[in-house]
Amino acid sequence: MNWFGPKYSELSDEQLMQRIGRSDDRAFSELYQRYQKALFRYFHRMLWKDREKAEDFVQDFFMKIIRKPESFDASRKFSTWMYSIAHNMCKNEYRSMEIRKPSDFETETYYLVGTPGDQIEKQIDRKKFMVQLVQELEELDENQRSTFLLRYEENLSIREISEVLSCSEGTVKSRLFYTLRRLASRLTVFAPESQKVSS
């Protein structure tokens, strides 16, 4: 018998949020460890690859949880609610920027969930491909880019994405189809294998 209750690592996100509402610091630390990297990755992609801004947004998000844990909609899955808030934070930032910054394209690796990396690496110059992929994503509008990142980087389901972005599942599928078709046509210069991203 466990006299001290369940380990925090065994609690669900939603259970952690309940404890955070009772000012449980250990519950907050566990939730932060679970999601701070994923949130940073999302903000970094959405906010012109501005590392400092992405870090600030991660901290702002978790400060919202500390200050108003009751804002969490307990009827929703935590991760879906989290990305909804993150998406709205990005939209507000876009509105506050009169002119979007030019992107500072780096040569870091961009991972697509489910993409057979060994096949791609054998067929293309990976570094150039990744740089070009990031550039193409930067040219998309925020809804298309967010849809793509949530699906292929954060691995959310179509249904979860529709909840995050407050749109129909059909709209999510349409955005993904358009984006994948665009990427396939723009990136074939590197290798035909890049078209398999939609499989």
Please describe what this structure looks like.
The chain has about 200 residues and is mainly alpha-helical. About 60% of the residues lie in helices and about 0% in strands. The radius of gyration is 19 Å and the shape is elongated. The N and C termini lie far apart (about 45 Å). The model is unreliable at about 100-115, about 120-125 and about 190-199 (pLDDT under 50).
CATH homologous superfamily annotation of the largest domain: RNA polymerase sigma factor, region 2, helix turn helix motif
Q: Which outline best applies? A: elongated
Domain module tally? 2
| Element-level helix/strand string | HHHHHHHHH
What composes the largest sheet? Answer: none
Fold-level CATH name of the largest domain? Rna Polymerase Sigma Factor, Chain: A
The rounded Rg comes to 19 Å
* Structural class label: mainly alpha
Low-pLDDT sequence parts: 99-117, 120-124, 190-199
How many helices?
A: 9
Overall helicity: 55-70%
Q: What is the CATH architecture assignment of the largest domain? A: Orthogonal Bundle
Query: How much of the residues is beta strand, in percent?
Result: under 5%
Cα distance spanning the termini:
47 Å
Per DSSP E runs of 2 or more residues, the count of β-strands stands at 0
Descriptive key words:
single chain; 199 residues; mainly alpha; Rna Polymerase Sigma Factor, Chain: A; Arc Repressor Mutant, subunit A; 2 domains; 9 helices; 62% helix
